[in-house]
Amino acid sequence: MRKNIVAGNWKMNTTLPEGLKLADEVNAALAAEKHNCDVIICVPFTHLAPVAAVIDQNVLGLGAENCADHTSGAYTGEVSAPMVASTGATYVILGHSERRQYYGETAATLREKVDLALAAGLTPIFCIGEVLAERENGTYNDVVKAQVEDALFHLSAEDFGKLILAYEPVWAIGTGKTATADQAEDMHAHIRGVIAAKYGEQVAQDTSILYGGSCKPSNAAELFAKPDVDGGLIGGASLKCADFMGIVKAF
Ligand code: PEP
């Protein structure tokens, strides 16, 4: 059975004291109130170990926003999957459109990162999504299919089953422009079909597919009500405890 999940992506926001305060607030809010989904925060590398020390990971999962495509060695400035795992974090966002766009991440790089993350025992939250021109010229289904196939279809069914996917139309990220619930549902159903064709219906049905892109308390319930939308990857609205909890409560 797939899980409902709300995951925050803090991106390059918060100093360490600000991040610790936010993590503590979210953890306390989740501990105080019943909620009907798994909740995860993905935070800057600098925050991982200190945040791990202040949250209860039975209540609030912890992840990184990226990891290196090598395990160790002379890669100045990089942070490897085993290093992330050694902080106590158990998730890692991979393939975010900002990494693809600003840091040139390709399917080949992402295959390495996914393999290393899985080998380190991390759960990748793997992002896919089309840019505005691809939405407008009608190629979006093919673009997203290729992103899934090129970066992930070398995996065994067992390893593929460990992933969380996040459909994030690039035109909706940080723009205030959300995909409609129907657009999200159509794409999520399409992705599930692509998975089913390769790994079978059971793996497809068991894969959590999150929606990301200007998701907020006011639109989360409508998005999450769709049968193939299993939650959200939340950027801007994960930086305020009340907004993030408003989205969690949409389940
Ligand atoms: C994201 O970057 O993953 C994201 C969904 O951002 P936002 O919610 O701010 O659009």
Structure description:
There is one protein chain. 45% of the residues lie in helices and 14% in strands. It contains twelve helices and eight strands. The protein has helices at residues 16-32, 48-54, 81-86, 97-103, 107-119, 132-136, 140-152, 157-160, 181-199, 201-206, 217-224, 241-248; strands spanning 5-9, 38-42, 61-64, 91-94, 123-128, 164-167, 209-212, 231-234. The model has no long low-confidence stretch (mean pLDDT 97). Residues 9, 168, 173-174, 212-215, 233-237 line the site of phosphoenolpyruvate.
Task: Briefly say what this structure is.
With 251 residues, the protein is α/β, with parallel strands linked by helices. The chain has 12 helices and 8 strands.
